[in-house]
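Below is a filled-in request sheet from our internal design queue. Each sheet records the structural input a requester submitted and the sequence that came back. We keep these sheets so that new team members can see what a complete request looks like end to end.

REQUESTER: design group, bay 2
PRIORITY: normal
MODE: inverse folding
CHAIN LENGTH: 303
BACKBONE (tokenized):
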């Protein structure tokens, strides 16, 4: 069986590597075009393109799939696999061959662009991966396979890697089902569907009037992508890691006068800042930052 793979992100690379390591024949990889990034706005390929080139895979970069349907029809493949591609695929593409999607949630819950971050942000205790048949409507296709896992204290990137590896494992099972003609489809219950949004830096401000668990969930979900920030006077501090401390009394939104631990009061305890990026761009642990900025002790933070 020959696979056409479409993806653009780190999640995509993990899935692709998983199936390649299992000996699956990937006849072609489609990813997004190079884009300008960094200080010099240099054209940079997607991580999928880099991986494909390193592994001698045939790779193509298409900005809009709808403009390349005739070219895709010429590719020798049996099934298209989509994993975090970042394009809505047109019906003309879906009509060519069976197309399946690796989606990191327990559909119909969390359709859309940010299921992993949303699960962490909401404090979910379980999540999972769904392999579904692609249809034009967003993440609404029939379910082929699902696997549920428990969510611990993972940050986004750790949970993303875990779910991507599971997605690759499920794909191998689906490929076996296709070859043995035992594939089964289960319709989603659209009445139970929920949708996620694309997060931006505006979502990263931390409000210490919220509970400790809510704050930590936000840091776990967003600190590694759009970033989480606090403001102390004229200082803007990017938070990387933190932990919730229940057994400390501390005024809400106020930095505790304690040079040993960087503690900020929240609704029901305190948040300890474990690591951060200072306004100068230096990464450091919370205690070191605090010792270098004693003037912020007893100061109030704002979001």
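RETURNED SEQUENCE:
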């Amino acid at each position: 069986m020959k696979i056409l793979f479409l993806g653009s992100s780190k999640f995509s690379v993990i899935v692709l590597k998983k199936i390649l390591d299992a000996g699956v024949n990937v006849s072609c990889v489609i990813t997004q075009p190079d884009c300008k990034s960094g200080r010099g706005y240099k054209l940079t390929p997607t991580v999928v393109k880099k991986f494909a080139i390193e592994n001698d895979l045939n790779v193509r970069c298409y900005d809009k799939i709808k403009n390349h349907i005739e070219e895709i029809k010429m590719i020798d493949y049996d099934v298209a696999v989509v994993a975090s591609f970042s394009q809505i695929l047109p019906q003309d593409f879906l009509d060519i061959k069976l197309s399946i999607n690796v989606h990191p949630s327990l559909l119909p819950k969390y359709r859309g662009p940010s299921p992993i971050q949303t699960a962490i942000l909401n404090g979910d205790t379980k999540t999972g991966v769904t392999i579904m048949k692609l249809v034009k409507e967003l993440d609404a296709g029939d379910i082929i396979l699902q696997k549920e896992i428990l969510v611990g204290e993972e940050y986004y990137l750790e949970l993303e890697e875990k779910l991507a590896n599971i997605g690759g494992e499920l794909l191998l099972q689906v490929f076996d089902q296709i070859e043995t003609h035992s594939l089964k489809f289960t319709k989603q219950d659209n009445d139970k569907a929920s949708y996620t949004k694309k997060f931006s830096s505006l979502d990263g401000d931390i409000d210490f009037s919220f509970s400790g668990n809510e704050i930590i969930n936000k840091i776990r979900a967003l600190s590694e992508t759009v970033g989480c920030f606090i403001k102390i006077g004229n200082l803007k501090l990017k938070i990387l890691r933190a932990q919730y401390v229940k057994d400390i009394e501390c005024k809400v939104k106020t930095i505790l006068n304690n040079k040993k631990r960087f503690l900020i009061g929240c609704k029901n305890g305190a948040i300890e800042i474990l690591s951060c990026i200072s306004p100068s761009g230096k990464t450091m642990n919370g205690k070191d930052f605090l010792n270098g900025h004693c003037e912020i002790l007893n100061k109030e933070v704002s979001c």
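SHEET NOTES:
- The chain has eight helices and 14 strands.
- The chain has a mean pLDDT of 95.
FILED BY: M.R.
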